[in-house]
Amino acid sequence: MLFSTRMARVRDSAISKHFQRISAGEFLSVFLKAFIECVPDNPYDQIQSWNNLTAFITGKQSKNGGYWPGENCVLLRVAKALGLEHQHEYLHSDLVLFPKGDPWGNLIVVEHENQIEGFGEEIEKLMCVLAPLKVGITYGNAAKGSTLQATLQRYFRGRHPSIHEAPDTEYLFLLGRKGDAGIWGWKYLSFSIVEGPDATQFNAIGKELVLEGWQ
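The structure corresponding to this sequence follows.
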């Protein structure tokens, strides 16, 4: 019995280490670094990355997502930096990151949507999948960001109470925003299930870039 108990502790310790969670803050830091590294230097290539935005951000190479070299796709670089594997459309999510090995034990689930007007469906998909960290990425100006924030609050008040998630589950939403003269930056909003989205707002982060091709 004593031997079995020790073996169980060793096993549980190995599993805990294998599935060590990634916080919203850690993901955000790695994402910003990867984005800056992947953005092309010249305006022509920037235009191509914008025209193939889904592939550039998520690495999904398809007719709908376009094409972008895998080593320069933002989220694939994030996965590599975090030491995680990735799979597209696993559980019908845009991207799932998990420990190396079998695709089990979702650590991070990502939904990406070019058009912010359709992002409500992505919020619902995130709520329906269990993972310690859930990330939504979309694009829009400050007014659309405010609308998205209100949508988040409404969904969590009206629909989320029927979903039983671990209280330390984190949500992170990234909003790409274009300013004048091709200035590009990101805003973020994050919260845990205990906190909820009501007391949060989108905050500006990181270094703004001049992306002439991202118009």
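The beta strands are 85-88, 95-98, 108-112, 133-139, 170-178, 183-192, 203-210.
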